[in-house]
């Protein structure tokens, strides 16, 4: 294998900015395309939730007919994130998104944590409990 070295001169830097492949000889300028193969929903279920039974496979197929594939994938990811590795939890997520709409905000548990007002405890009637004794 031949290694090529390009000196960091103003000309080579300008060439690299204009055409990154311009530093290589024409024989080595082949651009290889990499395609990332996403696992199908059944493989995703087996990798993240558990073994795929015929009943669950049928329910997954029904869910794909009812909801977009991105929703089903996102519901599996959310279930795994919260440690709920079962199909019923995933179904409930999908049903909730279908009725309430799928917003891109965090889960309600995370929203509760954001609504916590530290001033309530630092400046309110509980301030003496949380202040530094001097």
TrEMBL record:
Domain of life: Bacteria
InterPro entries xrefs: DnaB/C_C, DnaD, DnaD-like_sf
Start and end residues of each DnaB/C C-terminal domain: 42-101
A Pfam family that the UniProt record links to this protein: DnaB_2
Protein family according to the UniProt entry: Belongs to the DnaB/DnaD family.
Organism per entry: Thermomicrobium roseum
Protein name per its UniProtKB record: DnaD domain protein
């Amino acid at each position: 294998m031949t290694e090529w070295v390009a000196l960091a001169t103003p000309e080579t830097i300008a060439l690299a900015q204009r055409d990154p492949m311009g530093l290589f000889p024409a024989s080595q300028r082949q651009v290889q395309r990499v395609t990332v193969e996403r696992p199908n929903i059944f493989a995703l279920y087996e990798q993240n939730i558990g073994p795929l039974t015929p009943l669950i496979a049928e329910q997954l197929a029904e869910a794909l007919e009812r909801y977009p594939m991105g929703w089903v994938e996102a519901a599996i990811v959310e279930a795994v994130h919260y440690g709920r590795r079962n199909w019923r939890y995933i179904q409930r997520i999908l049903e909730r998104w279908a009725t309430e709409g799928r917003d891109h905000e965090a889960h309600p548990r995370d929203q509760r944590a954001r609504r916590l007002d530290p001033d309530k405890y630092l400046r309110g009637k509980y301030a003496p409990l949380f202040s530094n004794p001097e």
